[in-house]
């Protein structure tokens, strides 16, 4: 009991500290140009690469596992340095967006959109849209870009123990029309997700993390990866199409929101097999996109780790 109390106190202090850092950073970033954010990300990325051996080796190991003989050690090391830069840039972009989101033409409207016709056609069906995302590129900017275009946008987030920090982020997201759905409690999260699809809105689900409980084993870069089946389950239950969406970086300052055509899928009589097949299908799309932009994906993720056993905490 004592350990639980001390742990709660620890996370409470971290939560308050992180929220304070966010508030200060938002104030600071009002005076920093985007070029400055990019430059700072490069410096921090390089330092992280050289100073954090454990994380460097994890990224190199994941790249070696995924690409096998496709890339030599020199290319993988170069790619690892780029990955740390992009990994650092992502949260700093989020802060920059909060600080410079309004007026919209200052930053967010500079993100180009490709494939908007796919989204409009899917919403015209009236069953909502599942936006399939990944920890790729400027993924945290996706919701704001669509929200300022007038699309009703909802995203599922894992609040965890940093409730004050996530509450502050949800406040900023709400300013531009985004609605956040906490992952827990699960029953409430499912209900809210289904409701937003029934209202013909967009539900954003990031589905490229290893799911330690309830994940389905599907191929990812030729290896078994336990994958969250959420997009498949919601799609099969509501009829909402799955549209892969990624905000990709082109150089240092240019970004494009790419909306791909909806996944084509024919149902069979076995619902479980349908879920497995559709999960396999959308995972393949994520893999293909990561192969195109390998330095922009978060390779720190333990994507191929085995799931927890039922008795494991």
Task: Walk me through this protein's architecture.
It is a single chain. The chain is 51% helix and 15% strand. The chain has 313 residues and is α/β, with parallel strands linked by helices. The protein has one domain. The strands form two sheets. The chain has a seven-stranded mixed sheet with strand order 1-9-8-2-5-3-4. A two-stranded antiparallel ribbon has the order 6-7. A hairpin with a 2-residue loop joins β6 and β7. The longest helix is centred in the N-terminal third of the chain and has 28 residues, at 2-29. The protein is globular, with a radius of gyration of 20 Å. The mean pLDDT is 91.
